Amino acid sequence: MEQWDNWKAQLEPVLKSKAEEWQMLGYDRVTEDDVWACFLAKRSRMDIPDPVLTHWIVGELFRLKANDYMNWLTVEAYKGPNWFDKEEPLDLSQDLSQESATKPVKPVT
Predict the structure, then answer these.
(1) N or C: which end of the chain has fewer CB within 10 A?
(2) Entry's InterPro entries (predicted)?
(3) Residue 70, in any domain of the structure
(4) How much is the CA Rg of the chain, to the nearest whole Å?
C-alpha cells in the first residue's frame, strides 16, 4: 500500500483533472481523494503489470468513468458504519424521550 501512496503524490495533476471532469458532469462533491479511492477499489479487478509504470496508472485513471465513481460511492454507502458491532445494546428510549420533549405535539382535528 505504501507504494501506491507514493504514486498518489506524483499523480496529483491527473487526480485533479479527473475530479474536475466529474465536477463538470454534475458530481460537485467529488475530490481528488475520492478519485484515488475509487481507483484503488477498482485495482483489485485490474491486471496490474509488473513493474507498475507511471503511464499505466495515468491511463487507468483517465479510463475511470463517472459510472465507476457512482458504483464505488454506492458500495461505500452500503459498507457504512455498523451500528450493531458494539457489545452494548442501543438505548433508543433516550432518543425518543428527548425528541418528544423538544417537538410540540399538534392536536388532531
Answers:
(1) C
(2) Post-transcriptional_regulator
(3) yes
(4) 22
Return the DSSP state at 80.
Answer: -
| Grid cell in block for residue 50 | 509488473
pLDDT by residue (tens digit) across 35-51?
Answer: 999 998 988 787 777 88
**Dihedral, CA of residue 57, residue 54, residue 47 and residue 60, to nearest 10:** 20
Cβ-based neighbours of 73, under 8 Å, separated by 6 or more: none
Q: How many CA atoms lie within 13 A of 15 on its CB side?
A: 18
Instruction: Output phi, psi for 97, to 5 deg.
Output: -70, -35
**CA 50 and chain centroid, separation:** 28
96 assigned to some structural domain = no
pTM score, two decimals? 0.69
Q: How many domains does the chain have?
A: 1
